[in-house]
């Protein structure tokens, strides 16, 4: 799992990020036959993703799922999760991170 192009550990808290900034997540899976389904979720809500599927040459596939969204105060402490469904496992594989977001405050003096 990658956040802004950097690998992160499962269960990590990432940030702090500023409310209103664009956030990019990537989740990758390889070796699936057929290609695994890789999705992103924000709590119980699926995130829109761009999915790239590439053949690995031995009948298996490499899948990258990229989610890009604008952070809001409602994402603070949210659990963003990558789920991989594959014929190789009877249960989906889950990896997740928590988001640390700072408000974008404007002061009037």
TrEMBL record:
Signal peptide start and end residues: none
Keyword annotations: Disulfide bond
Residues of the Ig-like domain: 19-94
InterPro entries the record matches: CD80_C2-set, Ig-like_dom, Ig-like_dom_sf, Ig-like_fold
Transmembrane segments: none
PANTHER family cross-referenced by the UniProt entry: NEUROMUSCULIN, ISOFORM E, SIDESTEP PROTEIN
Name assigned to this protein: Ig-like domain-containing protein
Protein species of origin: Araneus ventricosus (Orbweaver spider)
């Amino acid at each position: 799992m990658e956040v802004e192009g950097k690998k992160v550990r499962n269960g990590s808290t990432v940030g702090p990020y500023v409310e209103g900034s664009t956030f990019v997540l990537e989740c990758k899976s390889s070796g699936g036959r057929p290609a695994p389904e890789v999705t992103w979720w924000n709590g119980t809500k699926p995130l829109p993703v761009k999915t790239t599927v590439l053949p690995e040459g031995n009948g298996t596939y490499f899948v990258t799922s990229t989610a890009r969204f604008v952070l809001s105060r409602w994402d603070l402490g949210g659990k963003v999760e990558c789920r991989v469904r594959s014929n190789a496992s009877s249960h989906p594989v889950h990896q997740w991170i928590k988001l640390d977001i700072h408000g974008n405050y404007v002061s009037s003096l």
